[in-house]
Amino acid sequence: MTRRRWLAAASLVGLMVIAMGAGRGAADMSDRTIEIDIHYSRFTPGTLTVPAGAPIRFVLVNGDPIDHEWIVGDAAAHERHRTGTEPTHGARPTEQSIPAGTTVETVVTFETPGTFSYICHLPQHEAYGMVGTIVVTGD
Amino acid sequence: MARRRIFLLPALVAAFLVSAAPALACGGLIGPNGAVNLLRTTTLAGYHDGVEHYVTAFEYAGGGGAFGSLTPLPGVPTSVEKGGDWTLQRLLRETDPQPEFLFDAARVGAAASAEELMKVRIDALDLTVLRGGAAEVGQWAADHGFRLPPDAPEVLEFYASRSPIFLAAAFDATAAAERGQNIGDGTPVHITIPTPNPWVPLRILALGKTSGERVEADVYLLTDRKPALLPGPRGSNGIDLAHSQEATQSLLADLRSDRGMDWVPESGWLTKIEVDASAGQLRYDLAIDASGQGTPSRHQAGLDIVASSAPAGAVDVGRLLTTLTIIAAGTLLLILLVTSRAGGGRTAAVR
């Protein structure tokens, strides 16, 4: 094989490695940690895919100068929070208050596959678009 | 010396609604009875010899406890004092002549912490001039029990990048009630601001509103000559030209006779801009050039400020770089393969 062919092969391998890395994206759970950034009252990423049964560490970074929440659950859970009265959250892994400019970490294990939402239930925030989706797979 | 004077008489809703509803974290806690609405605030801002004057009326529109607003200012004020009692009404009368009973009904619509540069109490209003960026103003609001709406981070940055000066007005509804103030009663405030670049904050009017909600306000300008405006009032862009002519002597005389209004000049050009836009549409301020140059500043209009509604994090830099890398690698690979094939052909030919 000529030197150029070796180079081509090496480039191809490198390309595949890079492409695999790109494909992992935010949904890759190989390290079981996901960072969710909050900026201008939006969650980024807005969609996640995680495996069921594995503990996932969520790092919630609030870069805004106002407080936010990260509440994960099904429709019933969110409905409760829309009319809830708890001033702050943190006792439950799926319910976190994130003061302005702070970072909060929580570990959540989704036991069953399904689709859940994470929402900030501070007044007007959900309507403004502070909603994300977590797809829990059975893989 | 030629007198440089511009009068800006904007009737605009003062800015950032900061709800002082109980700082409870769960949603739905600002109920229809707990929320306080700043329906509209009429503001007169004057610019004369490098000094801009605002006369703003903060109107109580219901609710209890304390509530307030934040108004971005083009500079640090030298004074904040009680404004004249009839100035704003007189302006409305000038451009919108109407039966007295209608006039009464339509008057002035409704309704690390930042550095506190000045604190003034006017009737039931606690006014504080703040200097700080979005984070500092947000912290100040939190420290004082106010909750900013979700669009505040972006809007605060929009303004702080030009002038990190804000006027926070906290309305004590209980004090207002004790003073005998009723819903709809306004408190005029006169702010004097030396600044070389006057502008009227418009985007702030949309704060706390959903994208489709309407924003309505009147903006009066009184200048030495017909002003150049940016954006131009086209109607379709959410602002329209409702009045533009030489200010009458009777208007100027009436304004001048009100409290603190002796700065009103002997002559001027009166312009009225009507704001009727969706909140999502109102993403600019009103820049004014009354110097005769006809070059209102894009910067002062907020048109050169990149304040995307999408969070910065939405642009995944890592993924973007990866994509570019893949493209570059693919291109390199293609070149190598083509070159190699061409070389191979030559080799085969040698055989």
Total number of β-strand segments of chain A? Answer: 9
Helix content of chain A: 10-25%
Radius of gyration of chain A: 19 Å
Oligomerization state: heterodimer
Shape of chain B: globular
Structural class of chain B: alpha+beta
Q: pLDDT below 50 for ≥5 consecutive residues: which ranges of chain A?
A: 13-28
| Count of the separate structural domains of chain B | 2
Q: Say how many strands of chain B there are.
A: 16
Largest sheet of chain B: 8 strands, antiparallel
Briefly note the structural class of the backbone of chain A. alpha+beta
How are the secondary structure elements laid out?
The complex is a heterodimer of chains A (139) and B (351).
Chain A: H1 3-24, E1 33-39, E2 42-44, E3 47-51, E4 55-62, E5 68-73, H2 75-82, E6 95-98, E7 103-109, E8 114-119, H3 125-128, E9 131-137
Parallel strand pairs in A: 1-4, 3-9
Antiparallel strand pairs in A: 1-2, 4-7, 5-6, 5-8, 8-9
Chain B: E1 5-11, E2 16-19, E3 42-48, E4 51-59, E5 66-73, E6 79-82, H1 87-95, H2 100-106, E7 115-122, E8 125-131, H3 134-143, H4 152-160, E9 165-172, H5 173-178, E10 186-194, E11 199-200, E12 214-223, E13 228-230, E14 239-246, H6 249-256, E15 269-278, E16 286-289, H7 317-350
Antiparallel strand pairs in B: 1-3, 1-12, 2-5, 3-4, 4-10, 5-9, 6-10, 7-8, 8-9, 11-16, 12-15, 13-16, 14-15
Helix pairs in contact in B: 3-4
